[in-house]
């Protein structure tokens, strides 16, 4: 996939560019910023809290069921007159396994959602990315359609960016 990267000096300029780019069908848009944008802080409805909760509950329920099966059905042992189904003894381990499943789901889910399994992206080669996490506000537009990239370039050029670079193809191949 190819695209273009534009760098802006202020957050306000980037937000204005995002507003205009989202109004046009230009393709997939990503931002690289020194801090989270105000509009992003509202949340996009990440599925992670629900997945973490479900994994924790499934782990706890699964461990509780395993302990119940082992002590009641498979290997009942009479220890000091204790009943075969002594649930208070099952709760701590079931809770700990639930926490283990929830934390593991959160850790690996974050890696997948953040795309950290990807070690390199063509956008990393752009000059603006060297300062993107310090003091530049960068937007990247991805599309394989030259018309969409041309439309995005016209929108971005009207806003006066500091720089515009193309990703994945030479500058001469895409009309300005």
List SSEs in N-to-C order.
EHEHHEHE
Could you list the spans in which at least 5 consecutive residues all have pLDDT below 50? 171-176
Count of structural domains: 2
Termini separation: 18 Å
| Largest sheet: number of strands, sense, barrel closure | 4 strands, antiparallel
Strand order in the sheet with the most strands: 2-3-1-4
Gyration radius, in Å: 26 Å
What is the global morphology?
Answer: rod-shaped
Strand content: 5-15%
User: What is the CATH topology descriptor of the largest domain?
Assistant: Alpha-Beta Plaits
Estimate the mean pLDDT confidence: 86
Tell me the name of the CATH class of the largest domain: Alpha Beta
**Structural class per helix/strand content?**
alpha+beta
**Separate helix tally:** 4
Give the CATH architecture of the largest domain: 2-Layer Sandwich
Query: How many β-strand stretches?
Result: 4
Q: Which percent bin holds the helix content?
A: 40-55%
């Amino acid at each position: 996939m190819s695209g273009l990267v534009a760098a802006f000096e202020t957050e306000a300029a980037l937000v204005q560019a995002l507003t205009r780019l989202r109004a046009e069908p230009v393709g997939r848009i990503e931002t690289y910023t020194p801090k989270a944008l105000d509009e992003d802080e509202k949340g996009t409805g990440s599925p992670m809290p629900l997945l973490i909760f479900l994994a924790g509950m499934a782990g706890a329920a699964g461990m509780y069921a395993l302990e119940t099966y082992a002590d009641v059905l498979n290997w009942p042992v009479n220890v000091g007159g204790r009943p075969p189904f002594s649930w208070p003894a099952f709760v701590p381990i079931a809770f700990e396994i639930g926490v283990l499943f929830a934390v593991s789901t959160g850790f690996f889910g974050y890696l997948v959602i953040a795309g950290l399994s990807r070690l390199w992206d063509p956008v990393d080669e752009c000059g603006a990315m060297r300062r993107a996490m310090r003091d530049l506000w960068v937007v990247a537009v991805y599309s394989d359609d030259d018309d969409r990239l041309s439309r995005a370039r016209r929108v971005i050029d009207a806003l006066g960016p500091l720089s515009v670079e193309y990703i994945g193809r030479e500058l001469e191949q895409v009309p300005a």
